Amino acid sequence: MMLEVAVKHAFKGFSLDVAFKAPPGVTVLSGRSGSGKTTLVNAVAGLLMPDQGCIASGDWVLLDTAKGVRLRPHKRRLGYVFQEGRLFPHLTVRQNLAYGAWFAPKDALREDTARVVEMLGIGPLLDRRPAALSGGEKQRVAIGRALLSAPRLILADEPLAALDEARKAEILPYFERLRDEVSVPILYVSHSASEVARLATTVVVLDAGRVVAQGPAADVLGDPHLRPGGARDVGAVLTARVLRHHEDGLTELQAGGLSLFLPQVAAAPGSSLRIRIAAHDVILSCERPQGLSALNILPGTIAEMRAGDGPGAIVALDTAAGRVLARITRRSATAMALAPGMRVHAVIKSVAVAAFDIGLVF
Q1: Is the whole model's pTM more than 0.90, yes or no?
Q2: Which domains are present in the chain?
Q3: pLDDT tens-digit map of 181-194
Q4: What's the rounded Cα separation, in Å, for the pair 301 and 322?
């Protein structure tokens, strides 16, 4: 199911004018704070009635201002996951889940409760009340409640923002499973580069209420001209397969026939991974380097270069493993005479890739 969104709305000092398509999977709305991400999600949810717009998927029309169609929020068949779980405190987890199912239309295709409970790992929590749950557990229950309401679309507005790093690491794999195992499209708001790289099927980048880029995650994140979260958040995403685990604590991966070594990854051989490589962790060399401690050396061809406003530059390198971005100084780019079409080597330290930047493909 392809969701098509086109919305225009004017506020004092800010206007929203966006249009994009959200295919099945996770469509991440990314961009700096104040770019219009939450405003857009509220328009899709019906919490904001825009001046003009059309939000539809085939014959399922949520909004069409030209035809006077403006469905109320409770008629839109949406599952909404907020920053906090917003569970009913007087109900058990089992009862909170049943509350979502109670609102599902009788003729709707429903998710199986047992499957949702297993997928989210909340079986041991069913008889607890929200006060006895951690933040990550509450979010998993909130996701389950949204799924069991038989939604035609799931909205997640920065669902990890209120969690600490440990809880974020706990909850992200469940969103990865949703992306790969649930047919309902998911609109996911985030300004975290790691979340975008791990979760997104499609990325829509907003800036000042406008769409500045949209497309498959690898294409958008590999564009050296985009920096939705700032220069330090620039990075590309690679897809790799777990080859083997070594006794010295390293996991060997394979991407496009090239080997990558990372600190041990909790995934079985044969598993597919998405890995975010931050641009500031990549060094470039004109010749294949020798005698380095860094284990990952990817040969490739410079596809694009972008000079920043300050002393930095972003270099996009196409390798057999996929596109890699390197953030270097303009002085280095000049000294090395870097230019599109030139063959160079990307050098990546194994320990530079954080565990939070590695996600599973189910």
Answers
A1: no
A2: 3-221 (3.40.50.300), 235-361 (2.40.50.100)
A3: 888 889 999 988 88
A4: 11
